[in-house]
Amino acid sequence: MKFGYFDDAKKEYVITSPRTPLPWINYLGSKDFFSLISNTCGGYSFYKDAKLLRLTRYRYNNVPFDSNGHYYYIKEGDTIWNPGWMPTKTELDSYECHHGMGYSTFRSSKNDLSAELTAFVPVDDSCEINKLTLTNNGSAPKTFSVFSYVEFCLWNAMDDMTNFQRNFSTGEVEVHGSAIYHKTEYRERRNHYALYAVNAPIAGFDTDRDSFLGAYGENSAPEVVVTGASKDSMASGWAPVGSHHLSVSLAPGESKTFVFVLAYIENPIDQKWVGRPEDGVINRAPAEALMARYDTTEKADAALAALKEYWDKLLSHFTISSSEEKLDRMVNVWHQYQCMVTFNMSRSASYFESGIGRGMGFRDSCQDLLGFVHLIPDRARERILDIAATQFEDGSAYHQYQPLTKKGNSDIGSGFNDDPLWLIAGAAAYIKETGDYTILDEMTPYDSDPSKATDFMEHLRRSFHYTMEHLGPHGLPLIGRADWNDCLNLNCFSTEPGESFQTFGPSEGPNAESVFIAGMFVRYGKDYAAICRHRGMDDEAAVAEKAIADMEKTVLDAGWDGEWFLRAYDHYKNKVGSKECEEGKIFIEPQGFCVMAEIGLKEGNCLKAMQSVEKYLDTKYGIVLLQPAYHRYHVELGEISSYPPGYKENAGIFCHNNPWISIAETVVGRGSRAWQVYTRTCPAYIEDISEIHRTEPYVYSQMIAGKDARNFGEAKNSWLTGTAAWTFLDVSQYILGIRPDYDGLVIDPCIPSSLDDFTARRDFRGTTYHVTVKNPNHVEKGVISMTVDGKDVDVSGISGGMIPIALADGKKDVNVEVVMG
């Protein structure tokens, strides 16, 4: 069942019913200011950090769903309605929500009055623009009222929802003309405030929530809206809000447009004050300058056009054209769009993450780079160095850090032993894309302490050596608190039956080992060695190459279970993910990464592992994380078995590592199988089951309930997932096979035998490559010829073909033809 459709020409998903199974959201903003907006106008805004600089409130787990946002109430006679349906839920005569690239447009109507609301964040300003156009489609004049409404957050979102004894006494506002200033904290911090303004004279305003809603009122029927008259209330403590009252008259066929601005305003400390700071009087000059940039419909339209142009340019860096409409749709638009959002947000702010606890993830942000680096390499470079600055001197790292302060999250701490290797993965992706080795010379702190800094290359060295020097009894990497699977906590024990688990102390171990990290070590160790060679560090490269070879042998000796790779060993040297186990016999993670690392490829282990995944882990909705599911709690395994069977890490379909299997299938040359894995979780290919899947049909979710779950096929945690980057990497670099390397661009497709020719446009290091791939014999993998601007490129003895940088020779465009066979 569908609740909308893709409009490929406009790069939009059009939602045709407000009653979607869950709120279906979009992200506005691409740099510093962000808003989340749902298909019913729910959501909230923040500047840089969703915890520390939250502009508007949102209530998670609220009943009904999604009942706080940026709303416009239209009151005509006794009828009150909203362009996005919520929160009044008045039945509309028509409704559409268009989620586009950085903007959302709502088109709805009631009683011959139509409303078109477009919300977006301009490219270069820290504000959200709402352009509201009202049209009289009837034959008689109309007079009606519009009431805007936002509820301000008192900046620190965690403190805002807990510290009521203080916060109920801190709210402050100013109102000047049609501009409402939320200046809570300004008296204390004196450098920022929020602005909510409209470009028209107002009939009234409200800034106090209780006055606007009424005693015991609610936002589905605010007292001010019901009565049709604002109270001109001035918030003093309690809960500040922003509401404008517009009185509108329209002749038949007439339209009027209003432009609302919700902004974060930062006033430099050294700027000349208007009024005395000790009085808390704000300096309105920066706000007035911003309002002047959007005070007409034409200016707002120009900003929206610039935003669309910005996205068109970004998405032009990689495009394809094939016989698969859904493939083109996802590759050209939605995969890359979600990669941009995950780069900006990491896992911090969605409808499943409150923006308060997690901040930016070390592991998460490194992986997000893999799908983003081709879009804006300069920002990728900056992010890599930000991540590295949270690393410790021994090569380990904080697991998370706050985006505003760039400080590591001490509440979560460190000890996730896969983290260091992800830094190598991110750095390698950046260098392959850009050829910029100067990043290695950047002086970068440890633990965000400028007094402790080395060049970035030393950070990579310490990352690699941390794993090399932390090996367990079998010679496999120690897992620490956990590896990628945060819930697999193998260094745990219980002193007595029924007691909660404790962790081992330093003198007792911990000795649990991870085959997954071993696969990472081999895969990304090869990148580390290559970077060392390029830098002239031949001795270090030799050390790395020996360690990698030793680890490959160790995995084959101690990490192979006969048909698949083991998952791990616990502290007591018991196998995890083995045929010897009663539950959890086979896990997805080591199968993906060990095969991607080509461990045992020549010996046939990789193909056997892929066959075992297909045999034991496949379902119609994707590949589950493990089988059989854990049906009781295992204290020696930790959190993984605390979930009911089929959910999250306990045999859920973790979309994040499905592309690992798809990529691994391209390693063994099974293009049709790689394609099957890709399409089973790809949003465009499962749009028809939206009533089962429930989350947005245009982006990935983190998890789909597995075959052991009561709600098999139901998704959760949409938008912010490593699935975005990994899937774009999978389809663009491994299935389509167009991937950057240190010395050039590789073309090595591994496609389903049913796919014929396709073309691609790929910007790479200042040159646009126009690639045509032909598959006359319907093979799945293999390149028999390649030409670049008519000249043959040698593809003998290698898989696929490398186009050396020298062949581009400074050209703006080159034409590439590849024949598979």
Automatic annotation (TrEMBL):
GO biological process: carbohydrate metabolic process
Keywords: Glycosyltransferase, Transferase
Pfam families named in the record: GH94_b-supersand (PF06165), Glyco_hydro_94 (PF17167)
Record-linked InterPro entries: 6-hairpin_glycosidase_sf, 6hp_glycosidase-like_sf, Gal_mutarotase_sf_dom, GH65_N, GH94_catalytic, GH94_Enzymes, GH94N_CBP, Glyco_hydrolase_94_b-supersand
Domain spans labelled Glycosyl hydrolase 94 catalytic: 310-737
GO MF entry, a single one: glycosyltransferase activity
Gene3D superfamilies, per database record: 1.50.10.10, Glycoside hydrolase, family 65, N-terminal domain, Maltose phosphorylase, domain 3, mpn423 like domain
Sequence ranges assigned to domain Glycosyl hydrolase 94 supersandwich in this UniProt record: 11-295
Name the UniProt record assigns to this protein: Glycosyltransferase 36
Organism: Roseburia hominis (strain DSM 16839 / JCM 17582 / NCIMB 14029 / A2-183)
